[in-house]
Amino acid sequence: MWANIEIGIDLGTANLLIYSKDKGIILNEPSVVAINTDTNEVLAVGVEAKNMIGKTPANVIAVRPLREGVIADFSTTSRMLKAIMKKASKKLGLSLRKPNVVVSTPSGSTSVERRAIVDAVRSCGTKNVYLIEEPVAAAIGVGLPVDEPIASVIVDIGGGTTEVAIISFGGIVTSNSIRVGGDKFDDLIIQHVRKTYNVLIGERTAEQIKIELGYSPIEHEKITMEVRGRDLVNGLPKTIRLHSKEIQKALHESLLQLLKAIRLTLENCPPELSGDIVDQGVTLTGGGALLNGMEEWLSREISVPVHIASNPIEAVAVGTGRSLKFINNLEKASIS
Question: Principal place where this protein is found (predicted)?
Answer without folding.
Answer: cytoplasm
